[in-house]
Structure formats: C-alpha cells, structure tokens
Amino acid sequence: MRRSTKKVTKIFVLITIFSIAWCNFLFAEGSVDAFMDISPSYTFTVDKLPPITDAFSYGDSKFYVYSEPNNILVESYIEIYSVIQPDRFAPHNIIHIFPKKEYQDYEISNLIFVVVRETDVSSEERSVIQSNGISNFIVGYSENINKVVVLSLDGDLVNTIDVEINSKNDLLLSTSYGFSEGVFWLLDKKNNKIQLMNISGEIVLSFSATKGSNIEGIDSTQFEEVITSERGDLYIRDSSNRIYQYNQITGSFLKSIFLEELKDDKIYGFAIDSLENIFISYHSVSDNKLKIAVIVQNEEGKYSTKVINEQPFVEEPIKLLAYRGFLILVTKENYQIYETLPIIEKLQNIKDD
C-alpha cells in the first residue's frame, strides 16, 4: 500500500511538472519559438509543374503559381464549406498553358494580377475585354524584350510597355488596391522611383522611394519585394530585413518595421492578410530551419516575431501569400496551405489579456 501511494505521488508530481512546463511553452511571449506550431493542411503539386518560379494573388479572389521553364500557370482557389467551420475546405486548381506558344520565349517574371474595367482601358485594348465589361490581366516583366508585358489569362499579348529597365532584378511590381482598376505599382530600383501605372503604360502617380524617410541606409537598390495591402498602403521589404510602409494616396513614408532578433537571419518573403497582420518566411541560420512567423508589436512600439511553423531548411522558398484566412507557402516543388484562424484567435487573446 505504501509503495502504491508513493507511485501515485510520483506520477502526480510528474504530471504537475509537465503541466507547468507546457503552460510556460504556450504562453511565454518573450520567446521567439514559443507561440504555436501549425502544420500545413494541404500540399499540392502538379506533374511537370516544377520548378515553380513565381506566385501571386489578387486579394481573396484567386492565387496563381507559375513555372516559366514549363510555361504552366496553375489558377487556384479555396472553397470554404462552412463559415462556422472554416477548417472544412478544399482547394481547386485549373491548369493553363501560359503564355501562348508565340510568346513562350519571353522569359516572364515578376508576375502580378490586374483587374480592368472597360472604362479604364484604351480603345486598342477594348477588344479583349470580356462582354461583362470586366477583364483580368497578368502583368510581368520580359527578360527577353526588356519590357513590361500585359497578357490575358489565355496567354495572349495585350500590350508591351517600355519602362527603360534592362533587368528583372531592377524592378518590382505590385497589384494596386484602392485606386480605379487597371493600374499597378512599378518600383524602379535603380532610379529610386515608385510609380503607379496603367496597362496602357501611362504614369498616374510617381514619387521618390526614399524621400521623407529618416531611416539611415535606406536604399532602393536593395528593395526585394513589394506588397499592397487590401486597405491600400504600400509595403516594401529590403535585403536588411526591414519593411517600409508608404501611403499610396500621397506617397508619403509612414514607418519602418525592423526585426532586431533576425539580424543574422534572412527573410525570403512576407504576406499581409485582410486584417493587416504581417507574416514572414525566413531562414533561421542558427538552427538551419525555414520558419514562418507573424510580426507583433509591443506597447513600447518594438517589433518581434512569433514563430508558427518551422521545418528543415532545404532551399529558398519562392513566395509567401495571404489568401482567404490561409497562408500559402510556395516552394519550387509545391505549395503548402496553412490555416491562420488559430493564429489570429491566439493573437487576439494575447491582446485582450
């Protein structure tokens, strides 16, 4: 009996210790790796698709993955079966040969999605507009002809725009929200310009990428990625792991987000959801892992990360997308879907506490 009592006491002590340790793991906000660990709900690939070279989306409408060497464009969307149970969903994919054969030597990259209404286009382009007065276009940069190209979803060439840029590495493109449809953002890295342009090539707005910033060392030639949030602001990530925010109406510089804790790591991509949460994918050099994290800001205004997934680092990912309450991590071989609702709920609980 005495031996049995000791055994029960020992088990109770072990359970107590484990419970305390588990609670500390879940709620230790000071630790980068102590937030949560979500696994992908779905991983998708297509025969003959790899290597994937680009990925892009248009808000919560659809997202796309593209293989330039194989001229394959996968048009994807996620069907959510229940608003009450958003974890009940299924992805759907439509495979396109893209672009058409006569343009397959264009070496297209930097792809984005542009929605155009008939009133926003020139008479020359009106013939390709669908009968409902709205059409969708894909805009990118051709390394072969050194021009921005506008293509239909069917892969037809609609327009070429000479932006006097001779390399895909010297520009960035982004979908625009908040302005009239038919426009997109172009960043001329060498000339330190941010321009709002329509698919006819007309410049609607232009401003300096660094004017108004008091950030030491900001350099447009080091810009690596640009995203327009659905609320309208422009976000630019550079090679020093900083993210800059601009007001897209006035072009004024708003703020800089710097993650001190990642100074020895490399950010490869970032995504912004409809609630303005910012997610990043990065290579953690110390443990050689690819990590996905959400950026949080404390009461003092300092930024840090909460890791939500980690996996062995194999190669640089292609893109991180935010879409309909999901994160899409695109690699050369496939894309992985992560549910973000549990993350958002936990973030809200932390704020409420």
What does this structure look like?
This protein has 353 residues and is mainly β. It has a domain at 109-258: TolB, C-terminal domain (Neuraminidase). The protein is built from 2 helices and 24 strands. The chain has helices spanning 2-27, 341-352; strands at 42-44, 54-58, 62-67, 72-80, 89-97, 108-117, 134-142, 147-152, 157-161, 171-175, 183-188, 193-198, 203-208, 223-228, 234-238, 242-246, 253-258, 266-272, 278-284, 289-297, 303-312, 319-323, 326-330, 335-339. The strands form 6 sheets. It has a 4-stranded antiparallel sheet with strand order 1-24-23-22. The chain is globular and about 50 Å long.
Number of E strands = 24
The fraction of residues in strands falls at 35-45%
Q: What spatial form do the alpha-carbon principal axes imply?
A: globular
Report on the biggest sheet. 4 strands, antiparallel
What's a quick, concise take on this entry?
The chain contains two helices and 24 strands. It has 353 residues and is mostly beta strands. The strands form six sheets. It has a four-stranded antiparallel beta sheet.
Task: Explain the layout of strands and helices.
Elements: H1 2-27, E1 42-44, E2 54-58, E3 62-67, E4 72-80, E5 89-97, E6 108-117, E7 134-142, E8 147-152, E9 157-161, E10 171-175, E11 183-188, E12 193-198, E13 203-208, E14 223-228, E15 234-238, E16 242-246, E17 253-258, E18 266-272, E19 278-284, E20 289-297, E21 303-312, E22 319-323, E23 326-330, E24 335-339, H2 341-352
Antiparallel strand pairs: 1-24, 2-3, 3-4, 4-5, 6-7, 7-8, 8-9, 10-11, 11-12, 12-13, 14-15, 15-16, 16-17, 18-19, 19-20, 20-21, 22-23, 23-24
